[in-house]
Amino acid sequence: MTPLATSICLFNTLTRQKEKFTPIDECQVRMYTCGPTVYDYAHIGNFRAFLFEDLLKRWLEYRGFTVTHVMNLTDVDDKTIKGSQKQQTPLRQYTEYYAKAFFEDATALNIKPASHYPRATEHIPEMVTLIKTLISKGYAYKGEDDSTYYAISKFKNYGQLSKIKIRNLKTGARVKVDEYAKEEAQDFALWKAWTTEDGDVCWETELGKGRPGWHIECSAMSMKYLGETFDIHCGGVDNMFPHHENEIAQSEAATGKRFVNYWLHNEHLLVEGKRMAKRYGNFYTLRDLLKMGHDPKAIRYLLLSTHYRQQFNFTFEGLEAAKGAIDRLTNLMRRLLDADGKSSKEKIDQLIAKVQTGFGEAMDDDLNISVALAALFDFVREINNLLDANALSKKEAKEVYTLMAGFDKVLGVIGEVKREETLPKEAAELISQREEARKAKDWKAADAIRQQLKAMGIVIEDTAQGVRWKIEKA
Ligand code: AMP
Ligand code: ZN
Question: What's the mean per-residue pLDDT of the chain?
Answer without folding.
Answer: 93
